[in-house]
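Board notes (copied after class):
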Amino acid sequence: MTKEIDDLVSAYLHLTKEVLPALARKGRRNWPVSEDHCFQRIILDHIFGGVWYDYLDRPAYKSLTKDQAQRAVKLCEDIADGHKDLQKLNQQSLIWRGKHR
């Protein structure tokens, strides 16, 4: 992994493990998830347009390309800033997984 990819992956992990769960716990948003692995599922599913592990080996963060890591960080930031609807993103992720409500 190059330094640039490593930095992007670190940013993605920080956003999904710290920033987004903290925003969810503050409760000011009506988000359907609050656990880090749920944010990671939603983000990665949307990066690939389907169930992420159909496209990547586990652990996913070790297999991300620069473009994928950039898109993951951007989507995390858009969710945090309220520019993307986490309810809709989660619903689509669940549909791809055959678990829609």
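Comment from the instructor: The chain has one domain: 3-96. Residues 3-96 form one domain.
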